[in-house]
């Protein structure tokens, strides 16, 4: 029986489109805010980014086991808890407490800030680290060629975002960013190990972290509905359009 890799190709295309919308939008932020204001730009950016992310997630759920099953470790003792613990930690990096949650929906005026505390002491780009960790845990669990293609696209996007993010912060903050860069690292704990940073665990005790912990619990509970969600995507107009 021939194995089709069509869904993997579509996934790469969707990830590239999402990267263009998300990272491209980020590069336009300063000029766009000067023209239409920070709140209007945040809403416009969200209106483009969120639907594209939903499409990517939906396609992933529907096709995560496509292609070749390279390994199956789901029956290995301890693999389930390992994947869940790793995933929970990845969300602490993906959605760090440096976010002001009210700025996301533009209830408060969105602002770009330099942070040098909390999780930034561990990694200057926590979202990239969180995404890489998420990819590692889910690749272990799923083990399909489609999953590896998805991981390749996600990691490539976030590695680009590391460079792109540093570039944008340098343009905006100049020497202040140089000082931050000199005392932080992209690799987790590297700046701590070589003495440029010292962790203060009190900085991690923020309400946003409680919200993230609750979200992890909700995601764990919601995983039982993934087969249903995947079936809905497979039967949707989106599937027909992209197939």
Order of helices and strands: HHHHHHHHHH
Give the termini separation.
19 Å
Rough shape? Answer: globular
Q: What characterizes the major β-sheet?
A: none
Number of helices: 10
What class do helices, strands and sheet pairing give?
Answer: mainly alpha
Give the fraction of residues assigned to helices. 55-70%
Mean pLDDT: 87
Task: Give me the count of strands.
Answer: 0
* Strand residue content: under 5%
Write the layout of secondary structure elements.
Elements: H1 6-36, H2 38-63, H3 79-94, H4 126-142, H5 145-173, H6 175-182, H7 190-193, H8 207-222, H9 226-234, H10 237-242
Helix pairs in contact: 1-2, 1-5, 2-9, 3-4, 3-8, 4-5, 5-6
Keywords:
243 residues; 67% helix; mainly alpha; single chain
Overview of this protein structure:
The protein is mainly α. 67% of the residues lie in helices and 0% in strands. The protein contains ten helices and no strands. The longest helix has 31 residues, at 6-36. The two termini are 19 Å apart. The mean pLDDT is 87.
